[in-house]
């Protein structure tokens, strides 16, 4: 990687290291929970090159590949005698810190924390090794106040946090409408109100916001409160696909244990195949996993529409990662990052080829 400066935001970008860039699309808060989960390993199972692999993910629907793969034992089956140890996270920075410290080896995470982690380490700490999910982001509004897209002007619209992926997407959409908003303050032709997804439904009910550009299941929670989906972000992307969750690995772990990484990727590919072949069973499995993680399952009125809006896939949709970074640069929230080398899709393509599936492309951002 060239000597490009790490990703920073205008003046306040020190905040981004502490804020879940994009990761609010995947969860809330900032702490990790080591739940110590281990799927039982058969006594006669053959161990790979590592005794265990530590896997991180978020307890949210956009990480359903990890939720279902764990709940159904797909990962452990592929790992054989190597134990899968699971930890859950509620924010991108904490998962990146865990990867950097060796507390996890592989993680499901949003693209922006991956970008931030990669650039801040000068390309030395992680690689994106696979895709997991696309979509699941919507603009939901109060239908009494906003009836058309043009009506958004002058209104108060929530995004999860300054600089997170939905915030960047909304700022880019505002700019394309020809409106002006100061990215940092959120003030301008539209008031962008940075609001934690946990409290966004209450803010909507109280009338302190007129709508929100948010991920699932928050979007469907707002609809359950009487909101209306005015725009599905997928409609703004070619083929209606854009990365919302991908898989990262410690470069050190990949170098030392490529067989373990391939086993986890096989588990991911087989999990996605099962999810897509059995959507209702997979939805139930994900909800069961969420209940186990949080103590509360999502009601049908929330999980049913949310599940339908997310596509589970192996392709990391690398070209959209670059576009998302460009949108952040355009909004004034990032300096142009050098993403060359952020992907290493060799292990995934090896797995896909063995499974008789099409290989995927790194959009020119692959490791040499």
UniProtKB/TrEMBL annotation:
Its main location: membrane. One of its GO terms (molecular function) is ATPase-coupled transmembrane transporter activity. Keywords: Cell inner membrane, Cell membrane, Membrane, Signal, Transport. InterPro entries: ABC_SsuA_sub-bd, NrtA/CpmA_ABC-bd_dom. The keyword Cell inner membrane applies. It is found in: Cell inner membrane; Periplasm. GO terms for cellular component: periplasmic space; plasma membrane. Residues 1-27 form the signal peptide. It comes from the Bacteria. Belongs to the bacterial solute-binding protein SsuA/TauA family. This is Aliphatic sulfonate ABC transporter substrate-binding protein.
